[in-house]
Design brief:
Layout: E1 3-10, E2 17-24, E3 32-39, E4 45-51, E5 57-60, E6 62-69, H1 75-82
Antiparallel strand pairs: 1-2, 2-5, 3-4, 3-6
């Protein structure tokens, strides 16, 4: 059974509040990785790193432009290079 919690991140450009619904499965392989997010206030892209990215979602304050998985070689570099 999955568990979840709300967490807050902040845009690195304008300090806009980003609400993220983190979802994970206890005892399962909860991958680490990240997103390139676009702030809904200033429109600038910024990086968010964390765990359980595949199952989690951004609730408000930003939209997801790209994601990456730390376990895949080159995934982070490709995602960040796009923006």
């Amino acid at each position: 059974m999955s568990e979840s919690a709300m967490t807050i991140a902040w845009c690195s450009h304008c300090e806009n509040k980003i609400e993220i619904h983190k979802i994970w499965t206890p005892g399962d392989a909860n991958d680490s990785g990240g997103w390139v997010l676009k702030c809904s206030r200033c429109g600038d892209p910024f990086h968010y790193a964390g765990k359980n990215i595949k199952m989690s979602r951004v609730e408000s304050g930003a939209s997801i432009l790209a994601n990456y998985d730390d376990e895949l070689a080159g995934s982070k570099t490709r995602a960040l290079k796009q923006f």
